[in-house]
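Slide 14.
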Amino acid sequence: MEIYPNGFSTYVHVEGLSERLEGHSRPGHFRGVTTVVMKLLEIVQPNFAYFGRKDAQQARIITQMARDLNLDSEIVVCPIVREPDGLALSSRNAYLSAEERKAATVLHRALDAARSELAAGLRDALQLQGVLHRTLSAERQARVDYAEVVDAESFEPVVRVSKPSYILLAVFIGKTRLIDNLYVEPKSPVSEELVFHF
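Slide 15: predicted structure.
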């Protein structure tokens, strides 16, 4: 069976969620992702489909697509898998030289610095972005594409971390673009205490 036969002209697009962040940096990327995932889910019809939280925006878009189109498959978002030094596993890591591989740990260090500030009570998103940029700028091989604090549902920027949120990073190490994130959620609706998921 051909996924894209001659004359193929139908695409799936999730509006709003697909335009920011990764969608802005990689125009058309999510249209391709949602279309191929939709086709595969319809062909295979699995009970469950698993996606990694490292690609948080992609997982959110696919979840929205499945909900909006009443797909039978349940979308399951899985934790990020990391190397012992904190670097998120990715096929792109293979493109890093030994020196770049060492430098790439700055993404996890930046997220950990933000987590520490949040644990100490900081909730202001702009100040958290400042923490991220300061940590990343200390690594000479790192070039920031974006470092943002967003609502976990809408992926729109937040002013204050007071509900489920993502701290998102996209950083070039040399010529290799890496992404990573920290998922933050209040322990309860009335609590200021936060739970962190690297």
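Speaker note: Residues 29-44 form the longest helix (16 residues).
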